[in-house]
Amino acid sequence: MKNQIICLIDDDPIYQTITKKIIHKSEAASKILSFPNGAEAIDGLTKLVQQPEEFPDIIMLDIEMPVMDGWNFMEHFQKIKTIFPKEVSVYIVSSSIACSDKERSKSYNGILGYFTKPVTLQNVLEIAKS
């Protein structure tokens, strides 16, 4: 399997720990980045622009977070993605089962999928195939 850099953006440290273990088990990532909210993720990604070898291939994004939620992250992401050194695949991973959230995710051409928490090994393998 291709080793990729996966970025988790989620405010729940327990969820992040569990998801990191699942990603490691999948052998899909050579590195995992993590941020507790969208604002820190935008800042962190912007700083990585000068280091393309450290830039993520995949972002797993929560919707409900303090400071900057997933939707606001996507608004900022869409505006600055042209400065990124490579194309990034974004997947929503949320506890929300609301059809409105799933539909809203389709309005962003950068979001390639929507998964309901908890993420599974099968979900990670599917995401990594992108």
Task: Please name the defining characteristics of this protein.
alpha/beta, 5-stranded parallel beta sheet, about 20% strand, about 130 residues
Q: How would you explain this protein's 3D organization?
A:
This protein is α/β, with parallel strands linked by helices and 130 residues long. Helix 1 crosses helix 5 and helix 2 runs parallel beside helix 3. It is globular. The chain has 5 helices and 5 strands.
Which helices and strands occur, and which strands form pairs?
Blueprint lengths: L3 E6 L3 H14 L2 E7 L2 H10 L10 E4 L8 H11 L8 E6 L4 H7 L5 E6 L4 H8 L2
Parallel strand pairs: 1-2, 1-3, 3-4, 4-5
* Number of DSSP E strands: 5
Helical fraction: 25-40%
Q: For the report, how would you describe the main beta sheet?
A: 5 strands, parallel
Structural class determined from secondary elements? alpha/beta
- Order of strands side by side in the largest beta sheet? 2-1-3-4-5
> So what's the overall shape?
globular
Uncertain stretches:
none
Tally of separate helices:
5
Measured between the Cα atoms of the first and last residue, the distance is 11 Å
